[in-house]
Amino acid sequence: MSDPREGSRLGLVVGALVVALTLLSGARDLGLGLDNWASYTPVTPGDPLPEFAVQLDDGSSLSSADLEGQVSLLVFWATWCHACGLEMPTVVEIDQRYAERGGEVRVYGVNRDSGAPAERRALVEPYAASKGMDFAQIYDDGQLAQAFGVEQIPYMVLVDKRGAIRSLHLGQVSERKLRGEIDALLDE
């Protein structure tokens, strides 16, 4: 017969090994979290633009470097977001007001709907048409939201000609306020 204490010792060794592996894994995750801490926080005014490369709805590409030399307004939104729908007339008015400025001001919609690209396009295109949203759209896979620290929408990021973040707006913002901020950046 085998000694019952042998099974008990084996159980203790296995249990200790499981605890040690769990602690090691937790320490590794903590280290990764501390190394990447800055990427988990929202951007703030004065921060440089996070680096990104995305595709626009027309198939062309857009990177953070492409925003230099113009004032850019990135609008994070979704079709299911009621507040986003209320904000769109303001965004459309801003886009139309500065359209004659020859590309000095660009508006980019950053769509946060979920689903496969074809499903999202089927939601976004009729929605955008009904709201008069003629500006470029980005179907965000989460890359931009993470880069900018966006957790709630609508969320607007105003970027100056040098590629620095100048203003952030969570929720609705008045057209007058946006115009004032954009005009000040154009005058710099």
Structural class: alpha/beta
Averaged pLDDT, please? Answer: 85
**CATH H level, superfamily name of the largest domain:** Glutaredoxin
| Low-confidence runs | 32-40
State the shape: elongated
Rg, rounded, reads 24 Å
Q: Give the H and E element order.
A: HEEEHEHEHEEH
Helix amount: 40-55%
Distance between the termini: 88 Å
The figure for the number of domains is 2
Let me know the largest β-sheet. Answer: 5 strands, mixed
CATH architecture of the largest domain: 3-Layer(aba) Sandwich
GO molecular function: oxidoreductase activity
Protein name: Thiol-disulfide oxidoreductase ResA
Describe this structure in words.
The protein is of the alpha/beta class and 188 residues long. It is 44% helix and 19% strand. The chain has five helices and seven strands. It has a five-stranded mixed beta sheet, covered by helices on one side. A two-stranded antiparallel sheet has the order 1-2. The longest helix has 32 residues, at 4-35. The chain is elongated, with a radius of gyration of 24 Å. Mean pLDDT is 85; it is low at 32-40.
